[in-house]
Amino acid sequence: MKTHRFSGSAVAACLCASTSLLLAGVAQAKAYKLDELLDMARKGNPGLAANAQVTAGVEAQALEAHRSYWPTGDLSSTVAPVPKIYCENVDCTLTNLSFQPSQTFAAITDLRGVFTRTEIKLVQPIYTFGKISAGIDAADLGLAASRGKESGQVADVELNVRKAYWGAKLARELLSMLDEGLEYLNDAQKKIDEELAEGSGNASVADRLRLRTMHADIEARVLEARRGADLARAGLRTLIGPSAPADLDVDDAPLEELDVPARELASYNDLARCYRPEVKAIDQMVAAKRALADLEWRRQYPDLVLVGTATYAYASSIDHPTNAFANNPFNTSGVGLAAAFRMPLDLFVKNAHAHRLRAEAREAELRRNEALGGIGFEVEKAYTEMKEADQRLKSVQKGEKAARQWIAAVMQNISVGLAETKDFSDALLAFFQAHTRCLQALYDCNIAVASLTRVAGVDVTKN
């Protein structure tokens, strides 16, 4: 595609009072290039920041899955007052605390010491029949899918920024076109006013009124273009977020057609399948569903683990008999290590759950195929729109060139009294229509290129 610049020798002329005030206000705003606006939106858009936090949460879940290899367990420690308990014979078969009904209350309320007990239990997985590895795979794939979805949301924001950017430039070009038309109109009005004042020529009061009517129509078009420019800048500020400058505006470079290297439709389809974020996210999500189904199936298998325990208890007011068979929970210490076998007993429930997840994984695969078909349609639609807009631009440029020549010829004839006001109004109207169609086709070309960039997943303006 070739680039085209729409500017005439009359574009630099002075505007009418309302248009001059508009451009003066815009000139004071800080202008940004498209790359700068895109970078500001990526950093400041609140929606993108929220999506990043969603991905951060999924990343934490993946970290949790990776740490499943680490030992788990619990630690408990208690402190409590206890009564005085001592042995009354050598083998400690008798103690002072007999718990006779008449002595029970007095015994348990006569607190003389402090008791503390600390217990720790750790369980280290040894072999889980692939449960941990399947869980890690599912978590990692889910994280990749979340990142792909986040990238797609970034691409959506970028597309909207491009639309607002080109919309602001379109409004500015329309204002320049109206300025050029106003110059022609002011020249014609001046000529008619002179003829009416001198009583010469063929000008009439009706001709003056016709031009005033056209002048009012152009002023209305100026207001419409101004509204479009204001909405485009407001859209940019919204997309950038709270940090957007209040005086934000686009750069002064003219609206030009983007240059896109020649490619066939099949090439764009291949690019979309390789680089579009949604395609990657769908592939990762399907793989994650498979991993989850595999995890649920493996949960029917047992686990082999190591169990380690440690206990320490001490009571300051309770005797500690030296008897290996005596169970003294108040004064004891010990450690233990054992291999254990754990097996779920709700196998029928887990089996049904595993079948359900396998069905969901197959559904995800079919949804992927459906989505790929939709993505192919989006690529073809954007490609067709880009081609159509480019061809339409080439066609309307011919009409715009002829309309510009037409109005220039009419202005020369008016200056020598060989044309009527109706001829001028017809030529000016044709110029407005042709130039507006040119600008609209140019805008449509750039929007189609931006849409194709979005659906293909890469910047199509680059080789």
What do these coordinates show?
The chain is of the alpha+beta class. The protein folds into two domains: 307 residues, Outer membrane efflux proteins (OEP) (Up-down Bundle); 97 residues, no CATH class. The chain has ten helices and six strands. The protein has a four-stranded antiparallel beta sheet with strand order 2-3-5-6. Helix 3 packs antiparallel against helix 5 and helix 8 packs antiparallel against helix 9. The N terminus is likely disordered.
Q: Return the string of H and E elements.
A: HEHHEHEHHEHHEEHH
How would you state the average pLDDT, rounded?
Answer: 85
- Per CATH, the class of the largest domain reads Mainly Alpha
Strand portion: 5-15%
CATH-defined topology of the largest domain: Outer membrane efflux proteins (OEP)
CATH architecture of the largest domain: Up-down Bundle
The protein's oligomeric status is: single chain
Rough shape?
elongated
Name of the CATH superfamily of the largest domain = Outer membrane efflux proteins (OEP)
- The count of DSSP E runs of length 2 or more, i.e. the number of strands, is 6
Largest sheet: 4 strands, antiparallel
Q: What is the tally of helical segments?
A: 10
Share of residues in helices: 55-70%
Number of domains: 2
List segments where confidence is low: pLDDT < 50 over at least 5 consecutive residues.
1-27
What is the compact description of this entry?
The protein is of the alpha+beta class and 463 residues long. Helix content is 63%, strand content 13%.
